[in-house]
Design brief:
The complex is a heterodimer of chains A (113) and B (114). With 113 residues, chain A is mostly beta strands. Chain A contains no helices and eleven strands. With 114 residues, chain B is mostly beta strands. Classes of the chains: A mainly beta (113), B mainly beta (114).
Chain lengths: 113, 114
């Protein structure tokens, strides 16, 4: 069964520092990997989706890389701002059924002014 | 505005009283899914649907039912709710047209079963 792990569980950085968030998965035969942001009491907002054939995807200050062979994805957020404070989750479809998804537990990020 | 709408947003009810949480999307998405989120356990998938009249179990389907009679709606039914179903529930949808479409989430429904 696909297992998705996010370490660390929590992270605090001063404003302006770059953020590096990690996502590991056990089965490298993934179709894609999606990164989400969740604000307290809110739903998930899709940030980036990397297809299995891609090595990275960029949107503004966000850059996500994917290394299927090592079972890792990294989300980089450049020049962090207090508004980046949220929980960040990654998710992959399972290999036995496209419609099933496994989520990581998330990394809670606090950016201090 | 493209959105996934869940109702109600909050509900406190008692054990055994049947309830339905509705989910509707206006993006003509084929795929819809229900998740529950619990502290320490993360997001876990309950049921999903690849299209009208096509549903399948996720990791934690016990105690839940779903139906997909129309493309836009995917209600979650708790026939006899129990306290262990107290949780934050999310509905999500995505297109299956083309490859690798992202999931869009509703704002969540907080259920408390006493």
């Amino acid at each position: 069964k696909q297992e998705v792990t996010q370490i660390p569980a929590a992270l605090s950085v001063p404003e302006g520092e770059n953020l590096v968030l990690n996502c590991s998965f056990t089965d490298s035969a993934i179709y894609n990997l999606q990164w989400f942001r969740q604000d307290p009491g809110k739903g998930l907002t899709s940030l980036l989706l990397i297809q299995s054939s891609q090595r990275e995807q960029t949107s503004g200050r966000l850059n996500a890389s994917l290394d299927k062979s090592s079972g890792r994805s990294t989300l980089y957020i450049a020049a962090s701002q207090p508004g980046d404070s949220a929980t960040y989750l990654c998710a992959v479809p399972t290999t036995d059924s496209w419609g099933k998804f496994q989520f990581g537990a998330g990394t809670q990020v606090v950016v201090t002014p | 505005e493209a959105q996934v709408t869940q109702n109600p947003r909050y509900l406190i009810t008692v054990t055994g009283k049947k309830l339905t949480v509705t989910c509707s999307q206006n993006m003509n998405h084929e795929y819809m899914s229900w998740y529950r989120q619990d502290p320490g356990l993360g997001l876990r998938q309950i049921y999903y649907s690849m299209n009208v009249e096509v549903t399948d179990k996720g990791d934690v389907p016990e105690g839940y039912k779903v139906s997909r009679k129309e493309k836009r709606n995917f209600p979650l039914i708790l026939e006899s709710p129990s306290p262990n179903q107290t949780s934050l529930y999310f509905c999500a949808s995505s297109s299956l047209t083309g490859s690798n479409q992202p999931q869009h989430f509703g704002d969540g429904t907080r259920l408390s079963i006493l």
